[in-house]
């Protein structure tokens, strides 16, 4: 039995969210293949780890036991991570960035100790990650804004094995913009099912 942590990085209500619909399809298949796995869900909209911003005032307590270390230890305890990640203004949501700021901590999730010069060692080497991402514009429109590359690179930096991310792009332009999340996601259902079976 494995533990799967699902992180909701979307600010859109689930019934109107393309990324939530992607996750629903993915998890439906995942549960068929892994019926005994424990699934833990984090809604960053409702947690301090998603809303607490790193500032001069919060710096001294940011990685405290209650927030930072709590979620770092959770990542060390689970086997798999599913990240729901729409694009907002060319990046992940602020709350997903806040979460990453909490868990990306030297000597906890990565280290430069014992690494070769100019390198690092990721400490989450038992973690497997699947990224489900959406963006309003078609793929390639924003050369400076690639939130999927940012997420993939960050989790790999921390040692995780990242499965091929699934990006649903162009959801804010026609014809997708006129469709419901269920209709939009139906175009990549086979990709989601295949990824869930391998995850």
From TrEMBL:
One of its GO terms (molecular function) is FMN binding. Binds 1 FMN per subunit. It catalyses: N,N-dimethyl-1,4-phenylenediamine + anthranilate + 2 NAD(+) = 2-(4-dimethylaminophenyl)diazenylbenzoate + 2 NADH + 2 H(+); 2 a quinone + NADH + H(+) = 2 a 1,4-benzosemiquinone + NAD(+). Residues 2-176 form the Flavodoxin-like fold domain. The keyword Transmembrane helix does not apply. Keywords: Flavoprotein, FMN, NAD, Oxidoreductase. It is an enzyme of class 1 (oxidoreductase). Its cofactor is FMN. FMN binds at residues 10, 17-19, 87-90. Transmembrane segments: none annotated. InterPro entries: Flavodoxin_fold (IPR003680), Flavoprotein-like_sf (IPR029039), FMN-dep_NADH:Q_OxRdtase_AzoR1 (IPR050104), NADH:quinone_OxRdtase_FMN_depd (IPR023048). Its EC number is 1.6.5.-, 1.7.1.17. Pfam families: Flavodoxin_2 (PF02525). Belongs to the azoreductase type 1 family. Homodimer. Quinone reductase that provides resistance to thiol-specific stress caused by electrophilic quinones. Also exhibits azoreductase activity. Catalyzes the reductive cleavage of the azo bond in aromatic azo compounds to the corresponding amines. This is FMN dependent NADH:quinone oxidoreductase.
């Amino acid at each position: 039995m494995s533990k799967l942590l699902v992180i909701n990085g979307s600010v859109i209500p689930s019934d109107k969210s393309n990324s939530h619909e992607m996750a629903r399809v993915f998890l439906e298949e995942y549960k068929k293949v892994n019926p005994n796995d424990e699934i833990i869900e984090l809604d960053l909209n409702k947690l301090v780890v998603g809303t607490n911003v790193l500032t001069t005032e919060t710096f001294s307590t940011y990685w405290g036991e209650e927030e930072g270390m709590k979620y770092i230890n959770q990542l060390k305890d689970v086997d798999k991570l599913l990240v729901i990640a729409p694009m907002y203004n060319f990046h992940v949501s602020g709350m997903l960035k806040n979460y990453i700021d909490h868990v990306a901590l030297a000597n906890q999730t990565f280290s430069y100790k014992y690494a070769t010069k100019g390198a690092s060692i990721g400490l989450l080497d038992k973690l497997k990650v699947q990224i489900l991402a959406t963006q309003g514009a078609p793929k390639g429109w924003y050369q400076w804004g690639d939130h999927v590359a940012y997420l993939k690179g960050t989790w790999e930096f921390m040692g995780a094995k990242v499965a091929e991310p699934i990006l649903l792009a162009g959801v804010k332009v026609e014809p997708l913009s006129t469709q419901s999340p269920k209709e939009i996601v139906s175009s990549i259902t086979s990709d989601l099912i295949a990824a869930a079976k391998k995850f």
